[in-house]
Amino acid sequence: MDANSSDRTKAERQAQVKPILEKLTELKLHASKFAAVKALMLQIQDYIKNGEPQHINIVFPEFGRRIKGTLETNRHVESSVKLSENLRFSEPFP
Length: 94
Description:
Helix content: 25-40%
Strand order of the largest sheet: 1-2-3
Shape: globular
Number of domains: 1
Structural class: alpha+beta
Distance between the termini: 39 Å
Strand content: 15-25%
Order of helices and strands: HHEEE
């Protein structure tokens, strides 16, 4: 990797997702219990391993919400993941 690169290293990507993983643990939202959390974990793993930005938009029907956000590889762009507003009843569940 070029010293002037604005891309995050693997260690930096791991540090970016650490607060997300800690919050999931704090809220007892485990991948073994919720398919939406499992899908998020797969995207996090891909982000760490391959260094590709991830755009997250996962339906979380158990809570009537979506997991939304981005995991950015550019050091100058913030990553964020959140539980978004309630789903509308007309939205289909995959």
